[in-house]
Amino acid sequence: MPETMRAIRKLAPGPGAQLQQIPIPAVGPRDVLVQVMATSVCGTDYHIYAWDPWAAGRVKPPLTVGHEMAGEVVAVGADVTACKVGDYVSAETHIVCNNCPRCHVGEYHLCERTRILGVDTNGCFAEYVAVPEQNIWINDKDIPWDLQSIQEPLGNAVHTAMAGELTAKSVLVTGCGPIGIMSVPVAKMAGAEVVMAMDVNEYRLGLARELGADLLINPTKEDPVEVVRKQTRGYGVDVVLEMSGNAGAIRQSLKAARNGARVSLLGLPSKPLEIDLAADVIMRGLVLQGITGRKMWQTWYQVRSLYRAGLAERLKPLITHRLPLEQVGTAMELMASAECGKAVLMPGLKA
Ligand code: NAD
Ligand code: ZN
Asked: Is 167 a catalytic residue?
């Protein structure tokens, strides 16, 4: 095994990142060393790369970026029992404390002291990453590396979609970024009667169509509330999966929901926003639900079952770009342009 590796590093506060040759991470007694085969790019990575106010307040360089990954176990610490050398694995990216009240009752995704791989600890935009054993998930070996890597955001989509009933329900997905798009086939496979997908970006609406959306709505061209009500005999949808974080979309989604609808909110608004709580939520009995991360490990089991039932095949068109580590800049330009589905860095690809 080599002693050094290539890694994408944020070396100092400010925009950008550098490809560096650095030592392969040391493995503690309960850590797992993974050779990274695929590591997909998330909005969070872009925030860190671009160094937005959130990143400036949270991230402490130097840091290896990246948290969505799949790879092969190449070494394990002396006390590791969760996996063995040769296993194909991904990682739950929330490193929970195990000691707070939420962890004690098994609500690990709500841990009060959670740390995030590639945000608070060195991540996986690298040839190797060390991951605590408690975060390791073993994958089926017949799933392609890129589809193994995207299980983390897919878990966000599954956690949101599965946070209530879907069978025979009308569903509106607001925001067709990668996570919103993934929620379309998930809702379909769970038996949704109709899935409507809304975005301002035609490229992304096209991907949503390819992944099974029944109806596409572009709010810059038509009134989404009118379209949804027309499709639902005037009542509104049973379920909203809010995946945009856009204030206007959130307000419209509440108005497009039927009385008593479930509105599951995953998208993160960049600042506080105003909603008509009395008219649009309280008097209509809406159930607003904040969604964070994935349930450990229920969501991962759901993703595995859905993959085995055909979701992996259905998600293939979402992987629009596969790039070597050297082209991280290109990946970030794609993120900025939003003319992409999922971009995946493959450390084994030649630059
Ligand atoms: P993304 O930024 O790629 O997707 C957001 C989409 O919303 C884009 O396609 C954009 O065009 C669309 N959009 C913007 N304005 C819109 C409008 N008015 N109407 C409809 N669509 C509009 O993000 P993603 O990676 O797919 O993630 C989705 C959201 O979930 C983001 O806000 C992200 O920050 C958030 N997120 C939350 C969690 C969590 O744990 N809660 C985890 C991961 C991501
Ligand atoms: Zn905790």
From this structure: no
Q: Which of 44, 93, 114, 299 is catalytic?
A: 44
Catalytic residue from among 47, 67, 94, 321: 47
Q: State in Å: Cα 97 to ligand 2 middle.
A: 4
Q: Which ligand lies nearest to the CA atom of residue 107 in the structure?
A: 2
| pLDDT tens digits, 288-333 | 999 999 999 999 999 999 999 999 999 999 999 999 999 999 999 9
47 is catalytic: yes
User: Which protein residue has the closest C-alpha to ligand 1 atom 34?
Assistant: 268
Tracing tokens 């995030």 back to the chain, one arrives at 116
Q: Which domains does the chain have, with CATH numbers?
A: 4-154+294-345 (3.90.180.10), 164-290 (3.40.50.720)
Distance of CA 237 from the midpoint of ligand 1 (Å): 20
Put residue 43 in one of left, alpha, beta given phi > 0 → left and psi -120 to 50 → alpha: alpha
The residues near 20 (Cβ < 8 Å, ≥ 6 apart) are 6, 7, 9, 11
Q: Determine if ligand 1 sits within 6 Å of the CB of residue 178.
A: yes
In angstroms, the first-to-last Cα distance of the chain is 21
Q: Which chain residues have CB less than 5 Å from ligand 2, an ion?
A: 96-97, 100, 103, 111
Q: What is the pLDDT of residues 220-272, one digit of tens each?
A: 999 999 999 999 999 999 999 999 999 999 999 999 999 999 999 999 999 99
Nearest CA to 348 among 36, 84, 123? 36
Task: Kindly give, in sequence order, each residue whose CB lies less than 8 Å from that of residue 18, ignoring residues fewer than 6 positions away.
Answer: 8, 9, 11
Q: Which residue minimizes the CA distance to atom 29 of ligand 1?
A: 267
Nearest to 232 by CA among 165, 166, 169, 161: 169
Which ligand neighbours the alpha carbon of 181 most closely? 1
Tell me the C-alpha distance between 111 and 266, whole Å.
17
Specify whether the CB–CB gap between 116 and 95 falls below 8 A: yes
Q: Which residue has the tokens 């872009």?
A: 46
Q: How sure is the predictor about 286, in pLDDT bands with cuts at 50, 70 and 90?
A: very high
Quote the Cα angle for 214-171-218, to 5°: 60
Closest listed ligand to the CA of 110: 2
